[in-house]
## 1
Amino acid sequence: MSIWEYANPKRFMQTSAVILPWVTVAALVALVVGLTWGFFFTPNADKFGSTVKIIYLHVPSAMMAISAWMMMLVASLIWLIRRHHVSALSAKAAAPVGLTFTMIGLVTGAIWGEPMWGTWWAWDPRLTSFLILTLFYFGYIALWEAIEDRDTAADLTSVLCIVGSVFAFLSRYAVLFWNQGLHQGSSLSVDKANHVSDVYWFPLLVCITGFVLLFVTLVLLRTRTEIRIRRIAALMARERME
Amino acid sequence: MIALLIRDLRLALRTGGGFGLGLAFFLMVAVIVPLGVGPAPATLALIAAGVLWVGALLSSLLSLDRIFALDFEDGSLDLLATAPLPMEGVVMIKALAHWITSGLPLVAVSPILALLLNLNPAAYPWLMLSLAIGTPALSIIGAFGASLTVGVKRGGLLLSLLVLPLFIPTLIFGAEVVKRGGEAVPLAALAAITLGSWALLPWAAAAAIRINLR
Amino acid sequence: MLDLGKYAGAVIGSYAASLALIAVLVCLSLWRNARTKRTLQTLEARVKK
């Protein structure tokens, strides 16, 4: 099995049709188990009270928000280098999913921040970086929507994704620098590794798996939609020719 | 190359709004902000560096869509693409012309506006230096954004959406230089961003233009 | 029943908000998928004739 085989949309459609139901079920099971376990069957933490349960949404979605952009970057490179059509479409399909995860990360963070830090929003480096990531997602999606010719759109968004990755990375470091300058010594961000004990770790792991599988499911589904849209456009063009 | 630069500069001057519009906008920002924030000198001094940098960002954004759009519409961009000058060179020249018409005047008038915003006098040289180092990065990043949206009709709004996030590192380091009175780290970072952008983005922008002309 | 203490609002709120966002995304994806599938089927049937 190699990814080059699936540059052929037909092969991709066949294989993904077989895989999709399994991934969907696996994602559902992992999410239901992980979130139920986390919500009902974990103790409250000393410092956080019951808000610790938010971690099962906050951490996986934040991880996936970044991973989704990475996946888009890889997919864009594959498209630019080898003209792998399905790859370009999968990058397009992943963007709204990544954006949603970013928003979940921000919203749960805000709701968590209000009781813990006494504020919905602070210009903490991590929060700011996430807000900037949201802007990059918006720009990427807007560029896809704006360009009519599909191959041109795939090319230009890929270029944007690559350049955007570099600048997103730069922004991350710029923001770290900028924030240290403002509040020296007062770090708001919670060092998660120090707090998490096994009781929280295992359900968290299940939730992370669930979010990964959810991402795969949605990207497969949305890529299939994009391929169909292409096919519709091609058929309609052919009809007009006749 | 020089002929192209002169042509672009002349076009910017004749169509109006080359030097004038960007500058007027910059001035406008410096006047509007105290009206909104209140006249307390201490508050203004605190935010002056940031306001001037944001103003520089927005005013360089104003003229970005003209970098390639007019040439794309009348076909001269196709001519330039077939000319012996590589597209990377065209991009650099056009970004340079954009900087001369929008960035350079800002550097020149920034002390006057800093006076309006009650910036600490010790920070004046750093303001000018940071703008002089940083605004070229804005021009080349903007040229990249413009090359992406050149084929889009009424792409102005889209262009700002794409370009503003890319401006963030420049903005942060630029404003930090002024606030910290020229510490070495932000200054070096700002210079690195400018040099890096000028070295790498022309390739990306040229690729995007070729794709758009296809 | 589960005791969420004084932070019940925050916990339930964040679960509700997240699940709502995911639900919107899933519904939109499914809806668009179904719609394009239908269009494609009618189109392919017409082309084959």
## 2
Amino acid sequence: MGRYVIRRLLQMVPVFLGTTFLIFAMVHVLGDPVAAMFGDRTPDPATAAAIRHDLGLDLPLWQQYLNYLGDIVQGDFGKAFNGQPVTELMGTAFPVTLKLTLVAIVFEAVIGVALGMISGLRPGGFADNGALAFTLLIISVPTFVTGYLLQYLLGVKWGVINVSVSSETGIGELLIPGLVVAGVSLAYVTRLTRTSVAENMRTDYLRTAVAKGLPRRRVVGVHLMRNSLIPVVTFVGADIGSLMAGAIITERIFNIHGVGFQLYNGVLRQNVQTVVGFVTVLVLVFLLANLLVDLLYAVLDPRIRYA
Amino acid sequence: MRGAKSAKWVAAAIVVATAATACGSSDDSSGSGGGGGGNVVRASWADPQNPLEPANTNEVQGGKVLDMIFEGLKVYNPKTGAAEDAMAESIDSKDQQNFTIKVKDGYKFSDGTAVTAKSYVDAWNYGALVTNKQNSSYFFSDIKGYDEVHPADETSKPSAKTMSGLKLVDDSTFTVALKTKASTWPERLGYKAFAPLPEMFFTDHAAYLAKPVGNGPYKVDSYTKGTGLKLSVNENYGGESKPANDGVELKVYTDNNTAYNDLQAGNIDLVDDIPAAQLGNAESDLQGRFINQPAGIIQTVSFPLYKGEWNKPGMEKVRQGLSMAIDREAITKQIFQGSRTPASDLTSPAIGVDGGFKEGLAGDTVKYDPAKAKALITEGGGIPGGKFTISSNADTGSHKDWIDAVCNSINKTMGDNVCTANMVGTFGDFRNQVVNEKIDGLFRTGWQMDYPLIENFITPLYTTNGSSNDAKYSNPKVDQLVAQANAEPDTKKAISLFQDAERQVIADMPIIPLWYQNGTAGYSDRVENVQLNPFSVPVFTDITVK
């Protein structure tokens, strides 16, 4: 198992190199960012050339990439256009987004699994149909609609929550944004849990467990849950990565200055350093989340072993 | 037990994961430090694009802060736009080319150091030197010796560090020698690129960037990049515009819809960029606490005069015809909800009649008249190639909507599909194509004034080799009128000469004037006396808090 983890960690090196280069090249293809810094005004060629030279944009792409990699190894992710080091931006943005993601994950895991269990234990019942309708509704309404709607009703109309999240970003303020982020995934978790619970209810080992007179709590809580949660864990694990990157819309609506905000600014201003730096870290998060999911399988299902 | 052993590895992987993602998580706690008093105006803001250096700020968000923390030799009257002496005791010239500037004594920066003539000379030399990469350095290009510190050729190095045209006489006096005569030059000195800079700007630049120091009505208390900026009253300020409140708190919003919602919920006092979708109902939502007035911005569409087919004799008729084929009234109402005003000259109402604005100067050439438009286009030889595109960038400002509307109006006039939109992915790419003359059809251009004077709307845009003459328009008659206007000591006569040049440009129609952009703002019932200056920036010093 130890060797397996090390091998997986080593596999990340080529993936890391490949993704950074791809993103680097893609942002590069967007064109020369210097002209945009002057607004509608024609840039004065001498100043533009000086800025280009300063950012290393006058070098060929491969050389720019190598320089960038060399800097990253030394912990230098470059600078954003306003002169702030990208590592500083990451230092403020990632904790904020991490908090939001955790709130969202807790929502989707707790509510999603609970709803899924309730409907899965009595398929076709009232609760099952109710959950089906509820999840359908959530999946079909886009995130920005739920976001703006909740913000307007709870924030502007009734004044229950703050319209925008303050710079301290307390957990309490993140509850509603977290719910909005979790929305669609929550619905999927419900569906997944329901299907897998309903399926496992009909399995032999569960019938055996009931037959040997185990209390219902143990049958459901240990035998049924543990097996039914495997697909759910896969989904939630993979979702950590996409939630961190995909909260751009929600972060904008609630004015949360996290990863989405920085990425959006970086893309808009074509700042290679910001975009590549943030995406690189996100790629790492994805890879590690996947590794965790794979390892969790072994915990949940003793039949799975890694060598 | 197998499970427990696996769990150990899960834990180990989590440690690696958190260690990897937390790299560079250095917490800087510069967010603390509050302003005094409770009457603080809370306003929306967006992250400025460049560091807050006066000669390196060319957009409104950074300019907003510079307006509060700096006061130059002149200031522009928020109502009329007229340039009035502020830090300048006097600005004299006998020949409109050599100026003697006397600085008022006894003024200080917020760090306690004195504002002297040297503060200006050093600041201007810094702004002009090419190696400092200040993107407003062209402001100093009229001063003698600019070409030595800022060679036009991108490969050559500067041969001097300071401009020969700037001379320090004593602590409160300096002289400026210009390359050519420019009677209206002193009027430009209200622009923040000409602001004085404290000694520490040059000695400890990093400290300046972290917490800018200026000589304006407010001083910076704390600046957390990407989050906000807190300003309080500068006790060292001795000028005329003393703040009527205790300070200003600027809060960064990513989405102006959120800022607008926060305004409605009463969490913020001032939003100076009302989202387009809300313009229709802002008046009633905010119960009249809504401002919608012309800003110093004119939107235009330029012809590619660098292409022979658009520049042949007779084509001016086609260009004028296309201008008359656009129904500006309908488009500004339907697409922009009245937040644009159809243009009738090449300047902006924001500069006022004294600044050179003349309503109706463009006459019939900007009036919607399909029959005449079609006749003119046919008379001029028709549209080159039978059809054309209007290009713009797609990433900001929903330009496609109005370009489609403009094309629609032209197509209806011509009774044929001659005009289509051509959207370029990013603003940077679009501007590159424009600058490098890569665009074959028409393209969007706009001009946001630097100072409220007709000169700023004509010289950079329509003189031969003008710094932002994207259409590559050239007419010796215009050049000559502009030179004459610059040499004219009497401002009134100078303005009328600029207007003559403007008439000639309209006759040639290298660009189609579309509309003046309005500045919008909404405010809460907690504040009063909110107004926008000609640059669409709120006049913070006048705002009172109830």
